[in-house]
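Exercise 7. Predict the joint structure of the components listed below.
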Amino acid sequence: MNLQACLLLSSGLFCVGLYGLLTRRNAIGILLSIEVMANAANLNFVAFSRYSGAGYGQVFALFVLALTVAEVAVGLALVMALFRSHRDALVELASAFRH
Amino acid sequence: MTPGFIIAALLIFAASIFTVRSSKLVHAVLWLGAMLASTAVLFIQLDAPFLAGIQLLLYVGGVMTLMIFGVMLTKKSGDGELRTESAPALRGLVISLALFGLLAGGIFSMTNGAPALQKPEEVASIAASVLGEHWLAFETLSVLLLAAMVGAILLARKRDAGAPESGKASPR
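Solution:
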């Protein structure tokens, strides 16, 4: 395995996540797609740290993991709020939060 | 490219496609778990065993449980409608394929395309880096986790149950 294969895999993963982000209508489905994208970014950090030897890559990946967990907690709470007010978790319903 | 890497990469990619395409949300969450677990396998191959363990504990253990609870709590009768109409699906496909083309072009035109493997990082050096050089980011992260916890409770709390208390507390 070399660096380019890892980068290619993680960019493919990122684009799959982007596709899910653009096509899902359920808020939890969108959260899942964001998880896929964050995982792709993490894979990049680890691959770069393995091949550059700089040593910060895994530290960054750890921080990304913690950030994603916090994001999932808040995101699911938002989904709950959306579901409670509309009895459904489709994101287009959230346009009502504007007014 | 070792066969182990190819197998792990195929698993990750297939599971991610099933994650974004499966029509039942519970299946999508389970596929996400499969993707995260095979990413942990890839982390082990990249000599990051500590990160692989954290990934399994935090993601496959924590986030997936949270997600499944979220799916179960927001379930309507049946699994709810999830398919999107065809126009946004095509648009999403075009946009993500274009982005992938751009990224792949960039990757293949890297000047230093195949750098040599370096010495793998040890867990002790990761710990020294997190708690030594990056202590401020670490402490900020703990504040962020606290804020996320409080915010999640505040957002998910039942509004009517808390209404009289908040009315009492507001004149302060």
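Discussion. Residues 122-159 of chain B form one domain.
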